[in-house]
Write a structure and sequence with these properties.
Elements: H1 6-9, H2 21-26, H3 30-51, H4 78-92, H5 96-125, H6 127-135
């Protein structure tokens, strides 16, 4: 028996070579996508808690260890990806605000949040983080 909520992801989490799955998630049904996005973020939180490392994205230097199991074996940023899926649902529902927020969210995260986190993690974990970045994509 798998540990909740991983059982929710087993049916739709992609193989590593499938990069179009997020589009299928966003253009599926809004209700199930909302649950999937929440499950993706929750699994990311659970993986961090199991590793006993910080969840605070403002202090990546406080990380005790790299998390590269569970959903982190598919995406380096599953919690951000879950947030993006939630915003993407607004696009699916034709919300003008969400249509503007989606690209702005990705641009902001890539430039200001994720880039800094990755610099800090590289400084702290070195070659181990470089190897992880080569093996797992930033988003999907």
């Amino acid at each position: 028996m798998t540990h909740p909520p991983y059982h929710l992801l087993n049916k739709w989490l992609p193989q590593k070579d499938q990069h179009q799955w997020v589009l299928g998630c966003v253009y599926h049904t809004a209700g199930s996508d909302y649950r999937k996005a929440r499950a993706l973020m929750l699994c990311g939180v659970i993986d961090f808690r199991r590793a006993r490392t910080t969840l605070d994205p403002r202090t990546p230097q406080a990380s005790q260890r790299l998390v590269f199991r569970g959903v982190y074996s598919h995406s380096r940023n599953p919690m951000y990806l879950g947030m993006l899926l939630l915003i993407g649902l607004g696009t699916y529902l034709a919300s003008p605000v969400a249509m503007l927020l989606t690209p702005a969210f990705v641009l902001y995260l890539n430039r200001y949040q994720i880039a800094q986190e990755e610099r800090d993690l590289l400084a702290k974990f070195g070659i181990e983080f470089e190897r992880y970045c080569r093996q797992v994509r930033r988003w999907i």
